[in-house]
Protein 1
Amino acid sequence: MNIFVLGAIAIIAYILQIFLGMKQIKNFNSVYIRMKRKGKVAIGRRPGKIASGTILLLGVDQRGTIQEAEMMQGTSILARFKPRPQLVGINIHQLTDSPVLIKENKLTRQAAANAQKIYLEVERGNH
């Protein structure tokens, strides 16, 4: 194959990756802003290099009760946020002890623990 054809394919793939990555960031921003308008948002993440990465957004009220939960999980730039209604109604202070969370996969549990940890640090004024 001609080196120019390979170069053109690589450039097109790179531009496509940038475009889809920007759409994913836009999806994150729209979900975050929607939740932020309703109250506090706890963000938990479990970055993935080889395994899939996970971002968990939890809309929390003044008492610490989760009002809304959405999660993005996947290895590609095609991943989008999906509602997690099973987490709604749980107090974020007891999130990692919840029997509902035990049924979730390991990556979701790690992201939830991260969200709880950061939320508690911010609540104490340490973050």
Protein 2
Amino acid sequence: MFRGLGIVLIVSAFFTAGLSAAEYEVGQKNKAFTVESLKIKAGDIVSFPNYDSFFHNVYSLSPVKIFDLGSYPKGQTQKVKFEKPGKVTVQCAIHPDMKMTIDVQ
């Protein structure tokens, strides 16, 4: 009777372990993102640390993922989880030339 329960627990633990999200970093340095494009999987997290001595405001108006992290100074990091597949254009509201693309698979 307990033998079947043990198999269920092992299988459940195996599938749970396979569902963990990866975390990526896209820094902000010299009024630019540290990468122009990034490929991730749905459910993954991207952190946006500010390495510049001035504020940045990371946001996206892409239908796949709309977000606005607000203005934050050097040394702070904001994170975003990307749940749906598709292309996401990320920009900085303070520095209009800052732009990158995240391809969520």
Protein 3
Amino acid sequence: MAQAPGKPPPYIKAIKEFKPINGSVTKARILLLGPSGVGKSSFVNSVVSIFKERISNPAGRGNPTSGFCPYLIRGVKEGTFLNLALCDAMGLSEENGAGLHSDDIVSIIQGHVPDGYQFSPTSPMTPETAGYVAAPTPNKKIHCVVYVMDASTVSNVSADLKKKLGEIRQRIPQLVLMTKVDRADPSLAEDIKNVDKSETIQEKVRCDLAALLGVPDTSIFPVKNYVQNEVKLNDNCDVLLLTAVNEMLKELLRKTRSDPAC
């Protein structure tokens, strides 16, 4: 059911008021990982759009991301930003010598990669690379990692990409965003609020993503991003998107409580 006019979406207040537990961290950094074209940049744009209260496309602009790009989100007051940053990065690839290198993922998480750095799939960053951040502050490190996968293609993931995802999973715990649910189940294009009732989506959660990534069903969040031809926000889309962001922040807080150094 659509929300009453003027009523803020669930979790928007909690997200606006979020503050990292670690006092040395001003912006919690959430890294989005996934193959090219799954909707990482579109998720960034969708969340930014909710807080701008209009469709906005600061990330990607239709082009594949080739670097490391943190995006801030406008705060309650003009000129201020929320205490989190969504970090987009080059997509993963099933091919050797293509896409984001697993060593670069570790460097991003540890804070060694500067904002705006352009990756080379065949030459991962080392301490000798220009721009390498040798002594990253807590603000430069990644505080939560989120996989982004396309619901309409997840059942067709190649053996090579499954292997790469498995290698990353062993090094990095994660939550999962399942994008493009309306493509996987066309009935949701008419009414996205029925996503929890969709047998197609539930099967993809249980049988495809949970098995592929080794995460529980409760760590997988179906969303529909806004796309370039959309001009108006949709309350039901916003609920899914904000629920996912809120869970990311809750996971970040759980991690910090168990490891205050994070």
Protein 4
Amino acid sequence: MTAVQITVLYFAKSAELAETRREVLTVPRQLTSRQLWLEIVSHHPSLRVIEQNLVLAVGEQYVSLGDEELLLEPGQEVALVPPLSGG
């Protein structure tokens, strides 16, 4: 299985929990959105608390955590976008 380096961007609560706004991770090139989430959580277990309210953006396309197959390109950006409070 081929691995690629991706850039993970953390926003709002995810940045607070991960204690970073950006990092480079090496992950399998082909995996599901759920597997990608688990790869990220393996580096930052504290992120589990926002799993139910999180949206991933892979290459500027929103994906839900599930069985959606992803084919990642080297250097691709993945953003963790937790819900924003507002009013």
